[in-house]
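Record 1 of the preview.
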Amino acid sequence: MKMYLRTIFFAFGLMLFSLTGIAQSTAITLKAEKKTASTGSKVCVNISVDNFNKMLATQYSLRWDPKVLEYTGVQGFKLPFLSKDNFGLVGIKKGFLTLVWIENNLLGADLPSGSTMYQVCFTVKGKAGSSSNISFSSSPTPFEAVNNKEQLAKVSVVNGSVTVK
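->
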């Protein structure tokens, strides 16, 4: 219920914020790390950011191949008010999770470029030679970010992967 209410608040806020247009000339970049791991091992992929300045909120989905990777959790939260409660896990068996984050003080949060925002962890199920992309997606959760001026920010992504050795 808490996540549902938070999602509704975020969606309503984004509707209002979208009336002000796209603000930042420098795009926020979300990056997933490229990793190599052995079958049966645990691997955590860093999700990092560039140009993450004065941000109030962001949302998106993260996808992977569930035949190769089995989701085990998220950890290493570096944003204020970011916790495992911000992640929707209904799709993990299908290979996706969603993120809805809001900076509850409404002041805007900063992370230095290259900083890890959080880690997503998996158990490697695939055979040697297989791989899974770790991809940012706007399905099922639309891709959006809002700055402290209540403006939509441009977002670019760099997808990652896990290769099984």
